[in-house]
Amino acid sequence: MVELLIVVAILGILASLIIPVGRRAMDSANAAKCMSNLHQIGVAANGYLGDNDGKLVPGYEGTAAAANDARAWRALFLPYLQVQKQGMKVFSCPSDPTEAKRTEFSWGQMTGLNPTSYAICQFYYYNVAGETLPYPGLHSSGSDKRDYRVASVKKPSSTIFISDIGRPDSVSVPISQWTENGRRLSNANFGFGSIPGLWVPGGDAMYPRHAVGKCHSLFYDGHVAALDLQKDLIDHPIGDPQCLYDNL
Predict the structure, then answer these.
(1) DSSP of the chain, one letter per residue?
(2) What gap in Å lies between CA 188 and CA 182, rounded to an integer?
(3) pLDDT tens profile 84-105
(4) C-beta contacts of 235-239 below 8 A and 24+ residues apart
(5) pTM attached to this predicted model
C-alpha cells in the first residue's frame, strides 16, 4: 500500500512537471504558425498591390449593414495564397480559442467576413493633430471608394498593417484579465480591428493572443513582430514618434 502511494505521488510530480512543458511547447508551435499566417498574408498583400497599381486593399466592399453584400479584404487576398481551397485557414490563428472550433472553410461562398483572427489596424484621426480623415485612414470601406495607395504609408517599417484581433468582454480591466466569453463563431468582422483608445466592450480590437500577452502584427513593409499592447502601443499613442499606428 505504501509503495502504491509513493508511485502515485511520483506520477503526480511528473505530471506537474510535464504538463506545463507540453503547454509551453504547444504555445510556441501555435505562435510560430500564427507568424507564418501573417507572413503569408503579407505575400498576398504584395500580390494584390502588384495587380492593382499600388492601391491598398479595402477593408471591405459592399454594405456593412448587410453581411451577404459585404466582401472583406480576406476574400480579396485569396487568389494570392498558395493553396486557394484551404486559403481561409490562413486567417485563423491556432491560438484563437473561438476560431479553433471552426470546421467549415467553404471556398465557394466566402465573403471574407470569417474567420476573424486577424484584421487591418484601424486608424482614426478625427480632430487629431488637425487631421479629419475618416476611419481607417489608409483603407477604404463600404461606400468609401477613394483610392488609398501604398505610397501614402509614410513609415511602412513602423506602421502596423494587420494584427491579431479579439472581442474583449470588458476593456476597463487590465489587459492581462481580458476575456472573450461573449464571442461566437458566427460573429462577422468587416475588416478592421481597433487601436488603443477606440476599444469598446464586445468590439473587435487588437488582442493579446499569445504568451506573455503578445499581439502578433504584420507591418506594411512585410515584417511580422510580437507586440506588447501596453508597452508597445498604449504607452506610445498618436503623436508619439514611437507610435506604431500613426500615419501623420
Answers:
(1) -HHHHHHHHHHHHHHHHHHHHHHHHHHHHHHHHHHHHHHHHHHHHHHHHHHTTTBPPPSEES-TT-TTT-EEHHHHHGGGSSSGGGGGGGGS-TT-TTGGG-----STT--S----SEEEEEP--TTBTTB-PPTTSSS-BTT-----BGGG-S-GGGSEEEEEEE--S-SSS-GGG---TT--TT----SEEEPTTS--TTS-EE---BGGGEEEEEETTS-EEEEEIIIIIITS-TTSTT-SS---
(2) 13
(3) 555 688 999 999 999 989 887 7
(4) 237/196, 237/197, 238/125, 238/128, 238/129, 238/197, 239/128, 239/129
(5) 0.85
On whether the CB atoms of residues 143 and 132 are closer than 8 A, the answer is: no
Which residues make beta-bridge pairs with 60?
72, 141
- pLDDT, one tens digit per residue, over 183-192 is 999 899 999 9
Q: Are 49 and 150 spatial neighbours (Cβ–Cβ below 8 Å)?
A: yes
For residue 21, pLDDT beyond 50? no
Distances (CA, A) of 85 to 43, 69, 141: 17, 22, 26
